[in-house]
Design brief:
InterPro entries: Pur-cyt_permease, Uracil/uridine/allantoin_perm. The protein is mainly α and 546 residues long. 65% of the residues lie in helices and 1% in strands.
Length: 546
């Protein structure tokens, strides 16, 4: 009989230490060591559910239509989304393999590549991305909540806005945002191994909402129309807009791709996540973006407005035609989008972010507490300021890629080419020079230097896009392809640095987590215990019982 951990909500607030009664160290707790066998329950079906949640959502819908609003034609927008999705899927496979092989998550990949202290920088950078992305998804979830409430209660729909224009949010939207917070926050305490029903329920709800909105738009418009860009651009600008579409999709999804090991560590078999990573992500993102492009074009024909956010479409429909039929349709569609925003935040932000924070302070923070920290920060950053215009939305997504793509390139090259898929697992929990991952004072200078060298070419364009400062067009276009520059450049520079100055240590023999002969750091360990016990005993050799 499969057993699961006790509910996390009571024990989260039981004591100051993350796990009362355990001997956690500054480098380990139960959330960042190899997953025990009883929690390795994710099959191919489960991973497909994950990628459905990642690809069938408001962000994916808005991708194609937001590029349409920025001047790119339908073919360029859809093609860019498809290529970007394929790239993100490949990165997910390459970065997910450590989780499949060692049942360890992204924080351990960061330690192996950037060093014990260098991983703090990587994790902090990823947390910054998580905070913003969680805030954006929460804001959109709040919009969906306001649609549901407004469809149900006319008094709420007709409520006057009491907030100043400088707030960049209305009273209705703020109330919806608070409702989303109240519902989403307790759901973070669901254990990852029990997340599958939530993801599948969300999939059915949001799929019905998106296809319903798409069918309504096409039918109400009297058929599909050829999507027309909102403005004219030159052929040269079109080429770079396509690259921007690729970069924004790859950048927006690289955040979840680079930390795929946070989920693949729960895989039941080695093959379970592979097809879902390589095919599930690209297909779901592209299909959703296509629906968004044609629905947005049809709505523009009818209302003269290019509205790229599907939830904003529902808000507009309620304002223009507040009758029983519209209210019913918007209620169910809003409910579907609300469920989607909950699952997206659970799958892509709360669990992974919680795990990242727990790696920074493992003695006092576990995944649940880390998720709470993430939510508090994400709720307080005024996330609506990041997405209220299509240009800003694209810039935000591209900025994710600018900062994260070099990390992905370095991690991939280190695991697959430098370490040849072999880790010395116990050394990942040793915070001194006896660990091969200590490098130089706990930092792998090769990885840090690579990140600096590959991020600076995109920085002037980033400043221009976010602060409105005019820079040379070459810098702007470099920023538009920042993901490509960062990922490929980062991988190449890191590989060359490792050739010039090889990192310490050597590829170690595989640790056999299945109860046979094990070789760790040259020491043979005979073990015939179950996998879950084996994991713990192997870790005890180096870091003490936790």
């Amino acid at each position: 009989m499969v057993s699961f951990p006790k509910p996390r909500l009571p024990r989260t607030f039981k004591s100051l230490a993350a796990n009362e009664g355990s001997v956690d160290t500054r480098w380990s707790n139960h959330d960042i060591v190899p997953v025990p066998i009883e929690q390795r329950v994710y099959t191919a079906k489960a991973f497909f559910g994950y990628w459905i949640a990642a690809g069938v959502n408001t962000t994916a819908w808005a991708l194609g239509s937001s590029h349409l609003a920025a001047g790119l034609d339908a073919g360029g927008a859809i093609g860019g989304v498809l290529v970007g999705g394929i790239i993100a899927g490949m990165v997910a496979f390459l970065c997910g393999e450590p989780g499949v092989k060692y049942h360890l998550g992204f924080p351990m990949m960061s330690r192996a590549t950037f060093g014990m202290y260098g991983s703090y920088f990587v994790i902090s950078l990823k947390l910054f991305v998580n905070f913003i992305f969680c805030g954006i998804q929460s804001y959109w979830g709040g919009l969906a909540a306001s649609v549901v409430i407004g469809s149900t209660f006319p008094s709420f729909h007709h409520m006057e806005n009491t907030l100043p224009e400088s707030a960049a949010i209305t009273t209705q939207q703020l109330i919806g945002f608070i409702c989303y917070i109240i519902i989403f926050t307790p759901m973070m305490f669901i254990h990852p191994s029990k997340m599958q029903p939530v993801l599948w329920a969300s999939f059915f709800a949001v799929t019905a909402a998106m296809f319903g909105l798409f069918i309504w738009a096409i039918a109400a418009n009297g058929g599909a129309s050829s999507p027309v860009p909102a403005k004219s651009i030159s052929s040269a600008d079109r080429s770079f807009r396509i690259l921007l579409a690729i970069s924004s999709v790859a950048g927006g999804w690289t955040g979840s791709s680079i930390r795929q090991s946070d989920w693949t560590r729960f895989a039941k078999t080695r093959r379970a996540p592979v097809l879902c990573q390589l095919l599930g992500g690209p297909i779901t993102v592209t299909v959703t973006a296509i629906l968004g492009v044609f629905a947005t074009s049809a709505i523009k024909d009818m209302y003269g407005k290019l509205i790229w956010n599907p939830i904003s479409v529902l808000v507009m429909l309620l304002k223009t035609n507040y009758n029983a039929g519209t209210r019913a349709g918007c209620f169910f569609a809003g409910l579907g989008f609300f469920a989607s925003q909950v699952s997206v935040n659970l799958a892509q932000n709360s669990i992974s972010c919680g795990m990242d924070i727990s790696a920074l302070w493992p003695k006092y923070i576990d995944v649940a507490r880390g998720g709470i920290v993430m939510c508090v920060v994400a709720y307080l950053i005024n996330p609506w300021r990041f997405v209220n215009a299509p240009g800003t939305f694209i810039t935000v997504l591209n900025s994710f890629g600018m900062f994260v793509a070099p990390l992905a390139g370095v991690n991939v090259v280190d695991f697959w080419m430098i370490r040849k898929q072999k880790w010395n697992v116990p050394d990942l929990y040793i915070g001194d020079s006896s660990s091969i991952y200590w490098y130089t004072a706990g930092i792998n200078w090769r990885a840090m230097l690579t990140w600096i060298l590959t991020i600076w070419p995109s920085f002037p364009g980033f400043i221009s896009g976010t602060a409105g400062i005019v820079v040379a067009k070459g810098w702007t276009r470099t920023f538009q392809v920042s993901w490509i520059v960062g990922f490929l450049g980062g991988g190449l520079v890191y590989y060359l640095l490792c050739l010039i100055s090889p990192p310490p240590g050597k590829p170690y023999e595989d640790v056999n987590w299945h109860g046979q002969q094990e070789a760790i750091d040259g020491v043979d360990v005979e073990n015939s215990a179950p996998v879950s016990a084996t994991d713990h005993e192997v870790m005890d050799v180096k870091m003490g019982k936790y």
